[in-house]
Amino acid sequence: MGTMFARGLKRKSAEDGEDVEGGLAGAQAMPSYSLQRQSLLDMSLVKLQLCHMLVEPNLCRSVLIANTVRQIQEEMAQDGTWRVVAPQAAGRAPLDRLVSTDILCRSVREQEGERPGPDAGDGHTPDLVPGLATVPSAQALRSPQSSLWEVDSSRENRGGFQKSLDQIFETLENKTSGSVEELFADVDSPYYDLDAVLTGMVGSTQSGHGSGLQAFSSATAPPPSSSCRSDLGELDHAVEILVET
Amino acid sequence: MMPGIGVLTQDTLWCFSQVKGTIEIGATEADIISTVEFNHTGELLATGDKGGRVVIFQREQESKNQVHRRGEYNVYSTFQSHEPEFDYLKSLEIEEKINKIRWLPQQNAAYFLLSTNDKTVKLWKVSERDKRPEGYNLKDEEGRLRDPATITTLRVPVLRPMDLMVEATPRRVFANAHTYHINSISVNSDYETYMSADDLRINLWNFEITNQSFNIVDIKPANMEELTEVITAAEFHPHHCNSFVYSSSKGTIRLCDMRASALCDRHSKFFEEPEDPSNRSFFSEIISSISDVKFSHSGRYIMTRDYLTVKVWDLNMENRPIETYQVHDYLRSKLCSLYENDCIFDKFECVWNGSDSVIMTGSYNNFFRMFDRNTKRDVTLEASRENSKPRAILKPRKVCVGGKRRKDEISVDSLDFSKKILHTAWHPSENIIAVAATNNLYIFQDKVN
């Protein structure tokens, strides 16, 4: 399947002041691990919010996605990349936000050579990254903004939950150049154009009625992305349902 | 016919027998089959669909004339089991999709089955009627009451034969016991109780009592923000009415004994395979989530299905499975895309054959896989209309992972991920299998020599 970014992708200016030449070995034509991890995080958060509005969302799926989000956030907190404002170019192509490469599917051992270390700002090479073997357990690191499931103590009221959502959005905001609305605006088009994007990379053996990874029909549950535009009111409602306030 | 013979030697060839359901043009989403189940004798085969309907097929008596054609399954009864509902409190629809059907063992002339959607379990009685009472004294032919003044004699109605009618009536409705979505139901071996499991709780019911149930497992945390694990499937032990297992989204299985305490939050046994740290990725947990758990007929083993594998566990060994079978390991490098398009959350089921020697599960592209536990051979077959000539032998399929693709192989990128085989069933004693492919039900039998 290869990577979708292989062709025509310009090298990014490094995040976190990393030295680009310092050791993103083999990632010359591919976005860095950090970028892809960020993309996976964005994708996961969108998945949590773009739920089926008519029917109660699948709790198992939501829990698994939330756990994935938590894992990523904990890893980022460990890296020290969680709070850093990344000077990401505002004019980046929306494609960059999508992650369909192999990198995130690779085992940790393979990734070891590419991940930024906790003190990446010093220009350490990724080889010095310590303790990558396991992702810390959920209990180990908890940041207040870390999870959709985590709300402050005044839990059972909407206001409390709203605040927590805001924290998440705030955090996202820090990582992007634009506002929250812009974040979703950015996300909308690439996700809705998923078909177009993936068509270009999946092989040439597509049949007329759309086989392949990109064009799964609506034979099963309705696709989460196509018809729900997220505005905050709906998000509140959806997340509220998720935690059963 | 030797019962349960399922050795996948070269002698066992699977043949197309029948296909039920519309061809693509007329198919609607409501026709998508969501569960398949043989009854305990294999005489009946039930399917449930997204539209809340149940269709029961009955095997016809084998005729001496057509020895080569073993009994075919024909429609026996069709009924609407569940209707869509609206939860006004949450402003959400409750789907009518039938999540599971489980048969009760037959105890009289009628057949009983449990069917469930996300919230409500129903007990259905399916019975035959081939006689009709005629000659009522107090009513006329149309059923209207006669003027009592005109009645001068007493007449006892007489039963007269009529065309066979199969009627399904709901005998019990077990409602309002589940806050979350029901994923499993399982009939206990005492035939008096059954359990229903949702994402966070398992309830025990008595068939006769619909207005209350016992909660036997509750994993809902006090604070929902601490929720990290849900129940994915549950089943009673086939012989020990006090034991049951349930699986979780973290890849664990718990065996519980109801004699130990009323609330079975503490397990008797805990089955979990240690994680392979070299294989860890952000998707590790998701692909370890167990989508189905099934006891073997013997009760000695349990089989679990996660996204990429099927595992067989010995009840006496908790720290790892005794067998692991790769269903479609070529998807391991595609997990990111499968996460993106949500396929990674597909819940595949798995089944044992009658003698527990072969296990079967579905995959994508309408492929399904069988693993012979004794010979360690496996085969990939396809449910498709192209292979649907009567008694046509199914040709094994192969997915090409990389390099040069041979003529009959299909490459991973050409797989159709919208064609997924989630639900299959195996006849309790014979080599007859039912495979649900979206809105079609395929029935395959082994070749009779």
UniProtKB/TrEMBL annotation, chain A:
InterPro entries: E2F-SERTA_domain_protein, SERTA_dom. GO terms for biological process: cell division. Pfam families: SERTA. PROSITE patterns: SERTA. GO terms for cellular component: nucleus. Keywords: Cell cycle, Cell division. Residues 1-23, 204-231 are annotated as: Disordered. Residues 33-80 form the SERTA domain. PANTHER family: CELL DIVISION CYCLE ASSOCIATED PROTEIN 4/SERTA DOMAIN-CONTAINING PROTEIN 2, CELL DIVISION CYCLE-ASSOCIATED PROTEIN 4. This is Cell division cycle-associated protein 4 isoform X1. It comes from Zalophus californianus (California sealion).
UniProtKB/TrEMBL annotation, chain B:
The keyword Phosphoprotein does not apply. GO terms for molecular function: protein phosphatase regulator activity. Signal peptide: none annotated. Belongs to the phosphatase 2A regulatory subunit B family. GO terms for cellular component: protein phosphatase type 2A complex. Gene3D superfamilies: YVTN repeat-like/Quinoprotein amine dehydrogenase (2.130.10.10). This is Serine/threonine-protein phosphatase 2A 55 kDa regulatory subunit B. Keywords: Repeat, WD repeat. InterPro entries: PP2A_PR55, PP2A_PR55_CS, WD40/YVTN_repeat-like_dom_sf, WD40_repeat_dom_sf, WD40_rpt.
